[in-house]
Amino acid sequence: MMKNVFFALATTIILAACSSDSYKLSGKFDDVTTGTVYLKKITEFGIEDVDTTELVNGAFTFEGSVEHPELYLIFHGTNRVPAALFIENTNITITGSTTDMEAVEIKGSRLNNLFKKFNDDIPHIEKVEKMREEFFMAQSSGDQSTMESIMADMQVIIEEQQNYYRNFVKENSNNVVGAFLALNMAQALEVEELEEILEKLEANLSGHPYVVQLKEFLAPMQTQRAAEAALSVGNEAPVFTLSDIEGNPVSLDQYRGKYVFLDFWAAWCRPCRMENPILKRAYDRFGGDEFEIVSVSLDETTEAWKKAVEEDQLNWVLVHDPMGSVAQTYAVQSIPNTWLLDRDGNIMHKQLRGEELIEVLEELLN
């Protein structure tokens, strides 16, 4: 019985020793003995100061605790190149030279071991550096053929690196390194890929700042996707009411029974202005009981809008959306942005431009 008590007590002591709610970061530089060492953290708002200390015979120590493991940076003096490491509540050691902070050796952290493996295994790192040198040499000598060849080879390597990055994140969506890398490559991923990764990260790291940031990044993309799905061909076009050039309210559903060409444009948009002569030709030929054009101006001021209308001699339905609320409903991200609606107000075509519009109208109305 006594043995069991001692065994239980010993086990408790061992477990307490293995689990920690604080970290100790011990470092030693082999090329300097004095100077200030700065500990900083990468946040969504930029680089944040955490702590500073002075070197004593080249050694330094930082102590504290973290709620979540995150990526930190260590700078020495005025050196602008830092050592990057994940800090978790454990004992971590750093050794190396201030002249090559990216190559310092970090021990005592499983996350940093994983992060190092990720960086070490990125394909073609040395080859890319050599290709950059060759590109700049070709550029300085005006060797266009070599430049194009290098750029083509580089594109293949970039795609291979992106696939490596993507696969690493998917295989490590249960840890902080994977979360950090997912956040950094989020713009290169499709919504569905991000959703899959985020689901796994939330199951393992719910509440971690990287996961929260990734979720915030994904939210508008999901909203955009839902808006685009609602605006698929065959769906009813969203109805809106805007003021015309005389200030009178105009509703899109006033034109049910006609084919409607909906055109988002602005006076400052050169491609939009270049389309206006084609729209005039289409309206002169087809406008009337069966066809209408509704041009939605995104100009901020009525002056610019009216001036462009007069210059281009536009004579169809002209309305103003200065706040962009209707454009947002239609998920407009660039202009010109066009939609052809059928007689029932349903979407038939999107992004008809130039002579293609004339050809479609000929089929519909002749």
TrEMBL record:
<dbReference type="GO" id="GO:0016491">
    <property type="term" value="F:oxidoreductase activity"/>
</dbReference>
<dbReference type="Pfam" id="PF14289">
    <property type="entry name" value="DUF4369"/>
</dbReference>
<protein>
    <submittedName>
        <fullName>Peroxiredoxin</fullName>
    </submittedName>
</protein>
<dbReference type="InterPro" id="IPR013766">
    <property type="entry name" value="Thioredoxin_domain"/>
</dbReference>
<keyword id="KW-0201">Cytochrome c-type biogenesis</keyword>
<dbReference type="Pfam" id="PF00578">
    <property type="entry name" value="AhpC-TSA"/>
</dbReference>
<dbReference type="InterPro" id="IPR036249">
    <property type="entry name" value="Thioredoxin-like_sf"/>
</dbReference>
<dbReference type="GO" id="GO:0017004">
    <property type="term" value="P:cytochrome complex assembly"/>
</dbReference>
<keyword id="KW-0676">Redox-active center</keyword>
<dbReference type="InterPro" id="IPR000866">
    <property type="entry name" value="AhpC/TSA"/>
</dbReference>
<dbReference type="InterPro" id="IPR025380">
    <property type="entry name" value="DUF4369"/>
</dbReference>
<dbReference type="GO" id="GO:0030313">
    <property type="term" value="C:cell envelope"/>
</dbReference>
<keyword id="KW-1015">Disulfide bond</keyword>
<feature type="domain" description="Thioredoxin">
    <location>
        <begin position="231"/>
        <end position="366"/>
    </location>
</feature>
<dbReference type="GO" id="GO:0016209">
    <property type="term" value="F:antioxidant activity"/>
</dbReference>
<dbReference type="InterPro" id="IPR050553">
    <property type="entry name" value="Thioredoxin_ResA/DsbE_sf"/>
</dbReference>
